[in-house]
Amino acid sequence: MRTKRGCFRLFATLPISFVLALGARAQESRNDEPVESILASVPDRARAKLNPLEKDSDAAAGGKKLFERHCTECHGETGAGSRRGPSLRATVVQRARAGELFWIITNGVVRKGMPPWAKLPEQQRWQIVTYLRADGR
Amino acid sequence: MVKPGMTSSVLSIRAWCGFAVFLCFLAPGARAQESPYIITYDHHLEEPGNLEVEYFSTFGTQRASNDFHAYWLELEYGATAWWTTEFYLDGQTTFADSTLFTGLRWENRFRPLRAEHWINPVIYVEYENISEADKIIKEVEGHDVESDLGDANAALRQGHNHELEFKLILSKDFKGWNFAINPLATKNLLPDIPWEFGYAMGISRPVALKASPRRCVFCPENFIAGVEMYGGLGDTQSFGLHETSQYLAPAIAWNLPSGWTIRVSPGFGLNDNSHRLLLRWGLSREFSGFGEIVRSLFQAHS
Question: Between chains, do A10 and B111 touch, taking CB under 8 Å as contact?
Answer without folding.
Answer: no
